[in-house]
Amino acid sequence: MRSFILICCLLVTAQCVKAQFQRFGNMGGGGGGAAQRDTGTHTHEPDTITITYRLLGEPTDYRLDSSIADFSSSYMHVPASYVMMGNSGAPARNILFTPFMKAGFDPGFHTFDVYGFNHQNARIYNTTKPYSELLYLVGSQQEQNIGVLHTQNRTDRFNFGFEYNKKYAPGYFRSQATNHDIYRLTARFNSKNKRYNAYLSYFYNKINNGENGGLRVGDSILDNPRYSQRKTIDVNLGNYASTTSGLFNTTLPVKTTNKQSGFKFVQQYDWGKGDTVHVNDTTDYYKFDPFFRVQYTIGIDNNSLAYLDGQPDTSFYTRKYGWAFNGDTVRALHEWRTISNDVSLIQFPIRGNQGHFISAGARYESIRGTFLDASISFSNMVLHGEYRNKTRNQKWDLSAKGEFYLAGRNSGDYNVSGMLSRYLNETLGNVHLFFSNTNREASYIYKYFSSTYDSWYNSGLGKENITQLQFAADNKKLKYNLAVNYYLIENYTYFENYYQSTQAPALFNLLQVIFSKHFRYKHYNWYAEFAFQQVHGDGRINVPTIWTRHRLAYENKLFNNLNLMTGIEAKYNTSYYADDYSPVIGQFVYQTTQRVKYYAPDLAAFVHFRIKSLSAFIRGENLNTFFATNNFAGPSYPYNNFTFRLGLRWWFIN
Fold first, then answer.
1. What's the angle, vertex CA 122, arms to CA 117 and CA 125, rounded to 5?
2. Is pLDDT at 18 greater than 50 in this prediction?
3. Looking at residue 243, what is its pLDDT?
4. pLDDT of the residue at 286
5. What is the spatial distance between Cα 313 and Cα 334, in angstroms, rounded to a whole number?
6. DSSP string of 376-439?
7. What separation in angstroms does the CA of 637 have from each of 396, 572, 609, 632, 641?
8. CB 420 within 8 A of CB 398
């Protein structure tokens, strides 16, 4: 693995030298676009690049984000509203309630989703020149991140893209290290007459997480100067076992390994009308507008979750899981493979607008699960359809879609949704209405679990039913975003302790209001974000009433090509009964015995800057630990101490 990474980095670096760094223009705050003209003297034209990407099934082109304003989303690719169980790369959840609303079979392994690739976020690129990107971060306690991206159009009909991310964080406490390897490969091809199109998406996520079960002693020990070195504090798991930790070789005494891989190959054949468009005396191009399409998709997805503790602590497993424990190795394993075949028929009513279509199709799924003591296999038959109208003037966007599980293990599951979006004008911006209703069987991890000490099956779970109503507004001129969500939930499934699942006893609802606003005075900026959440009824979910983040920054463009942003960032939420975490099953657990509160806002000081194609992020995080006790992500899971991070992001035309 080490050789593979070094070779990739050397290849990309070699291409960077060829590109000549000074010829790459400013990509702009929103990313993408044509590079600016170099004003230096050359015997040839400077490089220019236009790079866009699409998501599978979406008719909209997106541009790369080169903004330096938000370290969390644009660099770490983890939204600021996520909380991690004490360490970067550890199990994470969104503090803003986001229910799982996918009909059909689901294994239930979602605690590491925010770090990995999937088919939904696969980027199918189109670029006028080969493009590469390098990312590197180094932080306290030898934390390191490595990122590599390369994409190019080999011809005007074929593109491929490759991405690799490495995340390594030893953490401040014992048995806490994380070490993730994440890969993605995408490709697209269209025939010369543009009737045949093919798209490929492949990803592989290997997540390794050290489990320590949280602090063994009370929270007050963090204020004791005797334990300023946090690795001297006793934890519940892996307390006395040795740990070797390195970027390419990490040995964890107690660990969870989540492996996810997916292969999706989409083939399309179109009927329509083509024309040769005359550009000038020497240039013509062939334009093809489909009016009917046949689409075939094959998908193969694997998802496994494994837990291993070779030197278990008897008291922890007896107390939390109720096992008649004898001290032997604790193992748990769930492996799933899903093979799906989908055929869709698509009609385009208006020539030249592929954002306006009607589709109908059917999908057959074959699913197999393997556990320590058993295996299972079943299938599903699904019907689905969609109407989409994204107008060519970009003012209206309307969609209505649904899928229904006609037969098989998940028969009766369904999802229906509708969306209406309208761009009003520059002053009023864009407004958005959304509706969704999902009826689904609970994820399988809530129904069955097996380990070397215990196996159980919960056959009394009914189908979950979740309805979401949303109003959203986006205004670029006034620089604000607003989203109001109303959820109505029945049979909500959750873990009431470390290994037993159940469902909420009654229908309940949740109101959520999320607002962000950018204030600017000369070079001084205030990025304010607020969220309000309130549960009505007997809802077995834990959310803070208020969550907020603020960034106060000075921003300026210096020396013509230096974009500077420096300031302070603060995050805070009101106290609440934050979810606990069960290591063996890898799930968050509902609890009402211990409130988690912030002793002080999470504080960070930062200097972000970009010079042409190089961005740098210099940050001091968790400054609040200098004058207050560590804040907690969940019961017995404190956040890290003060952390220094230096991150670099570099783009190249190859």
1. 135
2. no
3. 67
4. 81
5. 23
6. EEEEEEEEEEEEEEE-TTSSEEEEEEEEEEEEETTTT-EEEEEEEEEEEETTTEEEEEEEEEEE
7. 46, 17, 33, 6, 12
8. yes
Could you report the per-residue pLDDT of 411-441, keeping only the tens digit for each? Answer: 999 999 999 999 998 888 999 999 999 999 9
Can you tell me the distance from the alpha carbon of 416 to that of 472, in angstroms, rounded to the nearest whole number? 19
For the chain, the distance separating the N- and C-terminal CA atoms, rounded to the nearest angstrom, is 25
Q: What is the mean pLDDT of the chain?
A: 89
Query: Facing residues of 158 across strands?
Result: 155, 189
Alpha carbons 402 and 363: distance in angstroms, whole number: 13
Which two structure tokens, joined as six digits, stand for 271?
A: 């009927």
Strand partners, 169: 178
Helix ranges (H only) for 261-326 are 314-321
Q: Cα separation of 599 and 637, whole Å?
A: 14
Q: Which amino acid is at 337?
A: R
User: What is the per-residue pLDDT across 481-509, written as a single tens digit (0 to 9) for each?
Assistant: 999 999 999 999 999 999 999 999 999 99
> What is the phi/psi pair of residue 459, to 5°?
-95, 0
Ramachandran angles phi, psi of 626, nearest 5°: -75, -25
Nearest Cα residue to 252 out of 210, 293, 290, 215 = 210
Q: Which of 156, 146, 147, 153 is nearest to 131 (CA)?
A: 153
The answer to whether 412 and 406 have CB atoms below 8 angstroms apart is no
The residue among 461, 462, 481 whose CA lies nearest residue 472 is 481
C-beta neighbour count of 29 within 10 angstroms: 12
CA 369 distance to own-chain centroid: 25
Write out pLDDT tens, residues 205-240.
Answer: 999 999 999 998 877 888 888 888 888 899 999 887
- Tokens representing 6 are 């070094």
How would residue 532 be classed by pLDDT, with cut points 50, 70 and 90? Answer: very high
DSSP string of 573-633, one letter each residue: E--B---EEETTTTEEE--SS--B--SS-EEEEEEEEEETTEEEEEEEE-GGGGTSPPPEE
498 residue type, one letter:
Y
Q: What are phi and psi of 223, to 5 degrees?
A: -90, -5
SS3 for 3?
helix
As given in the structure block, the two tokens for residue 524 are 């001084």
